[in-house]
């Protein structure tokens, strides 16, 4: 994955998830930030820290991004969610407008 | 996100933090040396709003934040934007306006993204205008309301200068007129009422003055050449900076003042009018006459009237010639008829 196509999402505990830009854009908030005019130099490595999102949740969210891209192509698959994560996941999804 | 661990953000506190971000944005727009927003800045500002809107009542500050969002624009406009515009005039004022409008749109884009959470639920719940609209409305109600008359006059003055042959900044006019269109947020009302109406009136007056001079001095062909040139230039004007919807209305005004008003005088000009052109076989001038007059309502009626008279007269003369002459002159008649048919093509 080229550097210009990637985005780094950092969890509260400091775990770094490097994902494709298109995947990250599934979140409206991340998408807004990345498309704001003049704010980020092309060469600047895009990093976003989420001090309020735990690693487990952030990992699940990244999985969701990719699943969402896949689903958009028409392939029907179910996205697995462990029940104990549900509440936090919903709140994170609301926060990220995903 | 562990909401139960989150400390409640007080409105004062939270707003103080947001204010710093807004000031930073203003500095960037004013061109002051200010580093760009980092992704951290962005997320912090967004998160602050998010938290203040998702806190339990009485700490759910959505309404207050919605109001403060609007107030931010109002404050910036009244303290900085309007004064800078009021001190300028004519073309300088137009340039400043274009700059301020561009800045304003950037400010709306950024602030509406920081305050985005309000757009998600609050505005729908209370049936309020979305953030984008609030931002644009502030500019419209404070800046546009006050200045649109001055702006309109400055634009029309430049248009008249261009008509007199001066070079003007067409790109500037296009940007200014785009404001009239964009401020309508989907409706053309502001463009039509606050600019177009006056522009059409001024255009009519301009060409009325020109026509009243030309009709006295110029021959019919020369007048028509000028008229055609004017119509061409006005059409060109539309394609470069007026809104396309102005084209039919503009051309109609020009045609009316140059052609409809003076049709009879023009066509019946003693030595150069329609009759003379037919007699002298001036095909190019007659084609122009046809092109021009076919565009105005019932424009061709007087022309066809004169044409009919001409054909009748010519025809009668030929018949008389034939009667007077011996039968070996019949060839001459057969050769004249194709020429008459020519005009019909």
Key features of this structure:
heterodimer; A: 98 residues; alpha+beta; Potassium Channel Kv1.1, Chain A; 3-stranded mixed sheet; 41% helix; B: 345 residues; 15 helices; elongated
Note down, in words, how this protein is organized.
Chain B: This is Cullin N-terminal domain-containing protein. Chain B: Belongs to the cullin family. The complex is a heterodimer of chains A (98) and B (345). Chain A is an alpha+beta fold and 98 residues long. In chain A, 41% of the residues lie in helices and 13% in strands. In chain A, strands 2-1-3 form a three-stranded mixed β-sheet. Chain A is globular. The two termini of chain A are 23 Å apart. The relative contact order of chain A is 0.20. Chain B has 345 residues and is mainly alpha-helical. In chain B, 78% of the residues lie in helices and 0% in strands. Chain B is built from 15 helices and no strands. In chain B, α9 crosses α13 (283-293). In chain B, 28% of the residues are buried. The interface between A and B is medium-sized, with 23 and 20 residues.
Summarize the structure.
The complex is a heterodimer of chains A (98) and B (345). Chain A is an alpha+beta fold and 98 residues long. Chain A has helices at 21-24, 28-34, 55-72, 86-96; strands spanning 6-10, 16-20, 47-49.
Distance from first to last alpha carbon of chain A? 23 Å
State the order of secondary-structure elements of chain A, H for helix, E for strand.
EEHHEHH
- Roughly how many Å is the radius of gyration of chain A? 14 Å
The SSE string of chain B, one letter per element, is HHHHHHHHHHHHHHH
Mean pLDDT of chain A, rounded to whole units?
84
The greatest interface between two protein chains, and residues involved on each side, is: A-B, 23 and 20 residues
Structural class of chain A: alpha+beta
The total count of helices of chain A amounts to: 4
Tell me the total number of β-strands of chain A: 3
CATH architecture of chain A: 2-Layer Sandwich
Overall helicity of chain A: 40-55%
The general outline of chain B is: elongated
The 3D shape of chain A can be described as globular
GO cellular component, one term (chain A): nucleus
Keywords (chain A): Nucleus
Family (chain A): Belongs to the SKP1 family.
Domain SKP1 component POZ (chain A): 6-66
């Amino acid at each position: 994955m080229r550097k210009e196509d990637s985005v780094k999402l950092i969890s509260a505990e400091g775990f770094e998830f490097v994902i494709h830009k298109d995947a990250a854009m599934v979140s409206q908030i991340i998408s807004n930030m990345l498309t704001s005019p003049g704010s980020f130099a092309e060469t600047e490595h895009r990093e976003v820290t989420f001090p309020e999102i735990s690693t487990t949740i952030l990992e699940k969210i990244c999985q969701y991004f990719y699943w969402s891209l896949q689903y958009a192509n028409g392939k029907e698959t179910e996205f697995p969610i462990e029940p104990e994560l549900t509440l936090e996941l919903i709140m994170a999804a609301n926060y990220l407008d995903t | 996100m562990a909401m139960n661990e989150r400390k409640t953000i007080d409105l004062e506190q939270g707003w103080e933090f947001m204010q710093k971000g807004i000031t930073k944005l203003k500095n960037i727009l004013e061109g002051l040396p200010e580093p760009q927003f980092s992704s951290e800045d962005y997320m912090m500002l967004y998160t602050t709003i998010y938290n203040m809107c998702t806190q339990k009542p009485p700490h759910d500050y959505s309404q207050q934040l919605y109001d403060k969002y609007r107030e931010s624009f109002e404050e910036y406009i009244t303290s900085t934007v309007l004064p800078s515009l009021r001190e300028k005039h004519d073309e300088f004022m137009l340039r400043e306006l274009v700059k301020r409008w561009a800045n304003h749109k950037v400010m709306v884009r950024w602030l509406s993204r920081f305050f985005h959470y309000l757009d998600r639920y609050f505005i729908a719940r209370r049936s309020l205008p979305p953030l984008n609209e609030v931002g644009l409305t502030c500019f419209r109600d404070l800046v546009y309301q006050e200045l649109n008359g001055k702006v309109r006059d400055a634009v029309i003055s430049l248009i008249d200068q261009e008509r007199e042959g001066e070079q003007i900044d067409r790109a500037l006019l296009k940007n200014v007129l785009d404001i009239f269109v964009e401020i309508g947020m989907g409706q053309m009302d502001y463009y039509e009422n606050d600019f177009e109406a006056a522009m059409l009136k001024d255009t009519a007056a301009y060409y009325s003055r020109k026509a009243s001079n030309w009709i006295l001095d110029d021959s019919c062909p020369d007048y028509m050449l000028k008229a055609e040139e004017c119509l061409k230039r006005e059409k060109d004007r539309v394609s470069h900076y007026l809104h396309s919807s102005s084209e039919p209305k503009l051309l109609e005004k020009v045609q009316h003042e140059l052609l409809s008003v003076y049709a009879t005088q023009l066509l019946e000009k003693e030595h150069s009018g329609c009759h003379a052109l037919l007699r002298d076989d001036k095909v190019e001038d007659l084609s122009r006459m046809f092109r021009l007059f076919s565009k105005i309502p019932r424009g061709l009626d007087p022309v066809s009237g004169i044409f009919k008279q001409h054909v009748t007269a010519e025809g009668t003369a030929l018949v008389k010639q034939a009667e007077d002459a011996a039968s070996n002159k019949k060839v001459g008649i057969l050769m004249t008829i194709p020429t008459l048919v020519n005009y019909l093509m």
